[in-house]
Each structure stands twice: as structure tokens, then as C-alpha cells.
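Many introductory courses stop at the sequence. We go one step further.
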Amino acid sequence: MASRHIVIQRLFGEVIQIKIFRSIRRNAIVEGKLKNYLFYAIGEILLIVVGILVALQINSWTLAKRNYTEETAILTRIQMDFENNQRLLNNNQKKWQVISNDLRELLEMVGPNPKEYPDKLVHKYMSSLYFIPGYNPSKGAVSSIILSGKISLIENLELRYKLNQWPTVLDEYKFSYSIIREMVYDFQNSFRGYHQFKDSQKNINPNKKTLGSSRFSYDQRRLLSLPTLETAVELKRVDTDGLELTILELIRLQDEILSLLEGELESR
């Protein structure tokens, strides 16, 4: 609003000056002073050009200030989302690391003539076979600026590139996760006669109230001697290793984005 008043005042002043030039021009024509007329005509043209350039510059400053303010707001929203996302992903990574270690331990227990182990330990490792913890990041800020085209307001080209790259890496995580999820759904009923899913619930959801152990049969020796169990554990272990690599890549990318965001916001 202030800039608009300034423009109006400048234009009003120019109008008065133009009237003065016109008055001088008429007098010069009447008196036959052609040289003076040309001088004042050129001055009038220059005055108009300068007035237009000043108005355009003020408008450019106003637009730049508005874009700067909007860019700062966008960067702040993205930073809040990614700080939360990084916490979620670090927690997700820890869960998959536990799963990977448990699956390796379970593979050592499986065989044609398995040893006898504490039931609690078997239930713990079987829970890691069933458990598929997901990562659901906040995507609102990034999605909105990409879809609206406002990502062009971000002047840092490296940050802009990495924000555009993030959805692709996230899709790689989702794809790896979906493979494991479908596989677990396929084989989780294969051990129904030897191990009950309910016996693993306390490990999967430690804070969730359960109704205790399953009342159906549990045959540890037959369970650990199943070739299908070995196959299921090995398949999930291999796919878990692949998922962990994707998680590392995603953590690295999000950390780079956060560092760039911090640098941009600290400089403002």
C-alpha cells in the first residue's frame, strides 16, 4: 500500500512537470525559438521515460519482496515437515535393523534337527518375520509447491533439485516395502498349525494390551524344521537388506535437504 502511494505521488509530480514543459513549449513555438522548443521536447520525452522506469522499478521491488516473504514461509513449512520426517525415518530404520538381526538369528535355529529354545525367544524372532513397520512421511508442503509451481520461488537450485528428487526416492522405499508386505501376507498362514500369530503380538505391539498367549497348539520342533519357514525367513531377510539400503539413501537425502534449509533460513 505504501509503495502504491509513492508511485501515485511520483506520477502526480510528473504530470505537473509535463504541464510546465508544455507551457514552455507553446511559448517557444509562439516566439519562433525552434532550438528551445526541441530542447524542451526532448526533456519532456526523457521525463516520461524516467517516470515509467521509476514506476517499473518500484513494482519490481514490491514483487521481489513479496516473493522473498513467500519463499521464507515455504522454506519454514518444508523444514518443519522434514524434521518430523527424519525422526520418523530414523525410528523406522531402527525397527528394520532389529528385524534383520532377528531373522539372522532365526535362520540359525531352523534346520532338519533343531535344538530346543525358550518359547519366548522363538516368539520374538517369529514376530520379526511378521512385522512390517512402515514410514509415512509428511508430504503436504513439498507436494503443494511442486503441484502449484511455487517451487520456482526457491532460488537455491541445489535445494530445488533435491526436493524434486525426494518423491522419487520415497517411491523406491514404498516399492521395496510393498514387496515385503505382500510376501508376509502370502506366507503368514503357512505356519498356522505350528505357530500362532497371537503368540508374537506382544513383541510387535509392546504397548498394546493383548489377551495373553494363544490357546491353540504350538509345536516348536516341527516349526523350526519346516523348509517353508527357512525359505520365508531368507526371502524376508534378503528383501529387508534391500529396504535398509533405500532407507539409508532416503536418510542421506533428507539430511542434505535439512542442511540446505537451515543454511537458507539462517541467512535471512
